Amino acid sequence: MILENDGIRLRAVEPEDLELFYLWENDEDNWKQGNTLVPYSRYILKKYIAGSGKSIFETGQLRLMIDILPDERTIGTLDLYDFDHYHHRAGVGILIADPSDRQKGYASAALACLVKYAFETIGLHQLWCNILESNAPSLNLFMHHGFTICGSRKEWVRVNNGYETEHLLQLINPQK
User: Fold this and answer.
1) Domain segments of the chain: what residues?
2) Does the domain formed by 4-172 have CATH 3.40.630.30?
3) What is the chain's percent helix, strand, coil content, to nearest 5?
């Protein structure tokens, strides 16, 4: 299966994921990565989950849950967003929610699956992501998978004591 790799599986969002979404989307530590400052209600998240079965071609986004195999414990999400059908590109976002699950190769395995799926199944020409300069683990993860820094926005994101630089990374499909 294209959405399994090295002990993880990417799967569609299910109604049973509501409480995980509620916790993760309302965790203030995640807000600066996602450019939000407001909590989400269960009602709004329930509506999002109900519509998540639509195609990326309809909604412009795709969220997949990251499960560890064989116990199928859900540890995070992987997103394709700002999908541009004409230019064949999309942004990538990843969240491994619990810090104890980070630095174990799960994000790397999930990203490898997503890149393969995006290029081979969806037919994208490129993927991109925005990563804060202080987020060395994410920068290393994406660069390990062939993404390169193609630009930087100085003092772009407001943080507790000022502003932080954000890097734009791209991965061009080598087959296109």
Assistant:
1) 4-172
2) yes
3) 35, 35, 30
